[in-house]
Write a structure and sequence with these properties.
This protein is of the alpha+beta class and 642 residues long. It contains 13 helices and 31 strands. The longest helix is centred in the middle third of the chain and has 25 residues. 42% of the residues are buried.
């Protein structure tokens, strides 16, 4: 039997803080993992007079809005059932779900603005259908009637007892934190309903397993006619307002032109686009995006290129514009370079490069409505970073345009290093579709990446929701290398799913570095300490996570995280982190480790201890907090990562 994995607490946190602080990522992970149970809890607490269909949509809406906007301290963490013990992220989102569900049942008051939870949810919505849980048996219906007669706090107390198996003391604290004035009265009222907790897991109370029926068809027909008349009037008025002028003709979804000057005209002229020669990359002193040839079946479509350039310069209000962090969204300063123009699945796609940015324009094949414009920084990219660009994502898959020097492409599951790579077809540099991890929902069980071969070099690139995939490396900072070979693949596998924490952050590369191996105090093996560092294209905003993995563990647990620190990087290849660990005998320990040039480690605060070398093991109490200080071989001191 392996030692029990624990959800680690940063050992460097301040001992004076009594309330756990929850990161948004931690809360999101708990919400995704326990989403069905949280929605069921909200559905049970909501007032039955809303109707089953609105209760379903409101339960989903309240649960999806339970994420905090930033780091949040949760004042109550009741004991958890198996699988949730000690998870402050789950405790926080559960508290927010209960609080908003109770607020939804409050009566509206005059001369007071209603709370958001008291209003019908804007999202999610399913037009033309009524959704409601599947009907249960006589026992479930009887229990539903009994719960409907209870107050909102009493329903919450009954649901928390039945779904999360919380004792009354923890239910009382949670209800108080949720704003219930008299939690004891709620518990006494809940006692009036017989113990039928097993029925709460039935389909009768499951808002994630639904039946669908149409809404009022006659009313929908009348509303559709009225909407058609209003839409026709709007089109006529829009046409009149748009005359005279170019309207929506030559520039597609672009906004009206606001300036006329030679430089701006040159930047919008498809005939002046820069195009690299097909073999320029073989002889050029530079091997980056500037030597990519123009590819795709629509490179000669001047109308498409004109629309793409015009929308780039003046995106209209209907254009969906996105940009990675730190990326300017202004128009081109001069004629940009064309990298691609062609049809990708159901869209026409154009890719430009202006020396600093990759710009992607996409429009449906049957018109310009729904056009999209995406920006990503690419300044300073070399041959190792300029290997691929995202052409499009559809139905959970992604297609890439690869560099002209890429001779082979394959799909690999980073979380399963022994599964091998599946070859992808390259047609004019465009890959066949492969699964993307950024559009997946639910628990992370795999992480598919793009493997490209450049001569004798193999590199792994991960889609993180941006135009340029992030390069994956391994090794000590300053001496990193691409992930290739069985050893490097096995080193990355336990930490593949942690890449989800840096999606959409403008990440250029992510390195995984195993900086220490620590024998466990119960002599059941050694735990691995690994530091992952995500570098960005803009230079700042790097994210660092120290993760600890017990022997045989499928994944690492995040022990500490920080942003905008040099730790684990080329400028400062040092790190110190700690975690509270519980042995299978029930004993708690503080395990701390530093990089190999750490001469000694000292722990103070909730745990006291010191050790020579880069490893520290000290007895601790559950929930203890400690401050870590390490001394390097050169005499410099470092603190625990946070």
């Amino acid at each position: 039997m392996q030692p029990q994995d624990v959800a680690p607490r940063p050992a460097s946190s301040s001992a004076s803080s009594a309330d756990p602080v929850v990161d948004v990522e931690q809360a999101e992970a708990a919400l995704v993992e326990h989403y069905p149970g949280l929605v069921r809890l909200a559905y049970l607490v909501l007032p039955p007079d809303l109707g089953r269909s609105r209760r379903v949509l409101t339960a989903h809406a309240l649960t999806q809005r339970a994420l905090p906007r930033n780091r949040t301290a949760t004042p109550v963490i009741p004991a958890q059932s198996a699988g949730r013990e000690g998870d402050p992220g789950y405790a926080l989102v559960r508290l927010r779900v209960v609080r908003t569900a109770l607020e939804a049942g409050l009566p509206l008051r005059r001369r007071a603005w209603p709370r958001r939870s008291q209003l019908p949810p804007l999202l999610p919505q399913v037009w033309g259908l009524k959704l409601f849980p599947r009907s249960g048996g006589a026992d479930e219906l009887a229990l539903d009637e009994r719960l409907a007669a209870l107050s909102g706090p009493a329903r919450a107390a009954y649901a928390l007892r039945g779904l999360d198996r919380l004792p009354d003391g923890d239910v009382r604290r949670l209800l108080t934190a949720a704003g219930v004035a008299d939690a004891d009265a709620a518990l006494r009222e809940a006692d009036e309903v017989a113990d039928r907790y097993a029925l709460l897991g039935s389909p009768e109370f499951d808002p994630c397993s639904l039946q669908a029926r149409p809404t009022d068809l006659m009313r929908r027909r009348r509303h559709a006619k009225a909407a058609l008349v209003a839409g026709a009037a709007l089109v006529v008025c829009g046409a009149l307002l748009g005359l005279p002028g170019d309207g929506w003709g030559p520039d597609g979804a672009a906004a009206p032109a606001y300036a006329r000057n030679p430089a701006a005209e040159a930047a919008l002229d498809p005939g002046k686009l820069t195009r690299a020669a097909p073999a320029a990359w073989k002889t050029s002193a530079r091997t980056d995006f500037s030597v990519w040839p123009a590819r795709g079946g629509l490179t000669g479509d001047r109308k498409l290129l004109r629309r793409a350039l015009a929308v780039w310069a003046r995106p209209g209000g209907s254009v969906r514009v996105s940009a990675t962090a730190g990326t300017a969204t202004g128009g081109p300063a001069g004629p940009p370079q064309l990298l691609y123009a062609g049809t990708v699945d159901t869209a026409h796609v154009v890719i430009f490069y202006d020396g600093l940015r990759i710009v992607r324009y996409a429009e449906p094949k049957d018109g310009t409505a729904g056009a999209a414009l995406d920006f990503a920084r690419a300044d300073g990219a070399g041959r190792t970073e300029a290997n691929a660009v995202v052409l499009g994502r559809t139905d959970g898959n992604v297609r890439y345009l690869t560099a002209p020097w890429v001779t082979k492409a394959a799909e690999r599951d980073l979380a399963k290093p022994g599964s091998g790579a599946m070859d992808l077809t390259l047609t004019g540099g465009v890959t066949s579709p492969l699964a993307t991890p950024v559009q997946r929902t639910g628990a992370c069980t795999s992480w598919n990446v793009l493997q490209v071969t450049d001569g004798s070099h193999t590199r792994l690139l991960s889609d993180l929701g941006e135009l340029v995939p992030a390069r994956l490396t391994t090794g000590r900072p300053g001496k990193t290398k691409d992930v290739s070979g069985a050893k490097a693949l096995h080193a990355w596998a336990p930490y593949a799913c942690s890449l989800g924490a840096v999606r959409g952050q403008g990440v250029r590369s992510v390195n995984a570095w195993e900086f220490a191996s620590q024998p466990l105090p119960d002599e059941t093996g050694s735990g691995e300490w690994t530091c992952t560092r995500a570098e960005t294209w803009r230079g700042d905003g790097a994210r660092v996570m120290a993760q600890f993995r017990t022997p045989g563990g499928a994944r690492g647990a995040v022990a500490a995280k920080a942003q905008d620190v040099p730790a684990c990087g080329k400028r400062d290849p040092h790190v110190l982190a700690g975690v509270l660990w519980k042995s299978e005998d029930g004993d708690w320990y503080l395990l701390a480790a530093g990089s190999r040039d750490t001469e000694s480690i000292e722990a103070t605060g909730g745990v006291s201890g010191s050790a020579d070398g880069n490893l520290l093991t000290a007895g601790a109490e559950r929930g203890a907090r400690a401050e870590l200080k390490g001394t390097l071989e050169d005499g410099r001191t470092i603190g625990g990562l946070r």
